[in-house]
Design goal:
single chain, 215 residues, alpha/beta, 8-stranded parallel beta sheet, 8 strands, 39% helix, binds pyridoxal-5'-phosphate
């Protein structure tokens, strides 16, 4: 189990134009540092307390991505530094992110989390609502919707995963055609990133295949 070689072999196999988010939730500063020292600067977290602690302790040129469900009352803790929020999943959250971004005199880039899997997830917009949600976002000056994020069903059925990613890609392309801010399609994790890449992902979020199994 060697984190550096895991990362390097994944980086070598993922096409250069696709961003890798090293998902470092539950991982120590030391382990994150070992990937950072290879020249990698993008890490993803899903808990605010952990994210803030890591931001404070680790090098300031790391780009921190929030990939997990975000409660509105926590937005203020990350608004000054977060570089991309993958999990924008409600209009209330959109309003709050805009407000906190404004207070920090910046624009926060966000992806709309879209519910594509079969699981009864509470989070994510319906794929049929994307255009309306983007329309809503136009009233906000300090938030920029740069793309979509989705998680496929946790299953062994490759065709199912493929068809879920494919439908997200289709919506992404449709909006990209009319919206110049649209450039990011965040799909694919350790178990399914190869399928996601085949289906047109531009950003994969990989944790356990880099750092090993989480505790
Ligand atoms: C944990 C997590 C990942 C990474 O999962 P792995 O299977 O460890 O690669 C990706 N995306 C989200 C939203 C996550 O919460």
């Amino acid at each position: 189990m060697n984190i550096s070689s895991n990362f390097q072999s994944i980086r070598k196999n993922v096409p250069q134009h696709i961003d890798i988010i090293a998902v470092s939730k539950n991982q120590t500063y030391k382990k994150i540092q070992s990937v950072y020292e290879l020249g990698h600067k993008i890490f993803g977290e899903n808990r605010i307390k952990e994210l803030v602690g890591k931001y404070n302790h680790l090098p300031k040129d790391i780009e921190w991505h929030m990939i997990g469900h975000l409660q509105t009352n926590k937005v203020k803790k990350i608004a000054s530094f977060v570089s991309l929020i993958h999990s924008l999943d409600s209009l209330k959250l959109m309003e709050e992110i805009n407000k906190r971004a404004q207070q920090n005199d910046r624009t926060i880039n966000c992806l709309l989390q879209i519910h594509i899997g079969k699981e009864e997830s509470k989070f994510g917009f319906s794929i049929n609502n994307i255009e309306n949600i983007i329309e809503e976002s136009m009233q906000y000056q300090n938030i920029k919707i740069t793309g979509l994020m989705g998680m496929a069903t946790f299953t062994d059925k490759q065709e199912q995963i493929q068809s879920e990613f494919r439908s997200l890609k289709k919506s992404f392309e449709k909006i990209k055609g009319i919206n110049e801010n649209f450039s990011v399609l965040s799909m694919g994790m350790s178990g399914d990133y190869k399928i996601a890449i085949q289906e047109g992902s531009t950003m994969v979020r990989i944790g356990s295949s880099i750092f090993g199994k989480r505790n």
